[in-house]
Design a protein that fits this description.
The protein has three helices and four strands; from the N terminus they run E-H-E-E-H-E-H. The chain has 83 residues and is α+β, with helices and mostly antiparallel strands. The termini are far apart. 19% of the residues are buried.
C-alpha cells in the first residue's frame, strides 16, 4: 500500500545540500517524488530535474510543495524529521 508524505520548501530556508541528501534517500527507498508549484505538478525522475524544478519554482515564488509517495514513506518521514 502506498502512503503520502508532503512538506513545503521555502525560498528563505532552501539549502541545496539538504535537498540533495533528501532526494538521494528517496531514490534509495524507491519513492515517487512530485513538486507542486506555479499551479503545476511535476513528477521528478532524476536529481537534475529535482534541483531545476525546485530552484525554478522558488525563484518565482516563496514556497513550493514536495509530495513523496510510496510504501516506505514512514521510514523517509522519520529520517527527515531527525535531519
Amino acid at each position: 500500500m502506498k502512503n503520502i508524505f508532503s512538506f513545503k520548501v521555502y525560498a528563505a530556508a532552501f539549502r541545496v545540500k539538504q535537498m540533495i541528501r533528501f532526494y538521494k534517500h528517496c531514490e534509495k527507498l524507491g519513492q515517487d517524488v512530485y513538486i507542486y508549484g506555479k499551479n503545476q505538478v511535476k513528477q521528478i525522475h532524476k536529481m537534475s530535474d529535482w534541483l531545476t524544478v525546485l530552484i525554478e519554482n522558488l525563484s518565482l515564488g516563496e514556497e513550493c510543495l514536495v509530495v513523496v509517495e510510496g510504501s516506505r514513506v514512514s521510514q523517509l518521514r522519520n529520517s527527515f524529521s531527525m535531519a
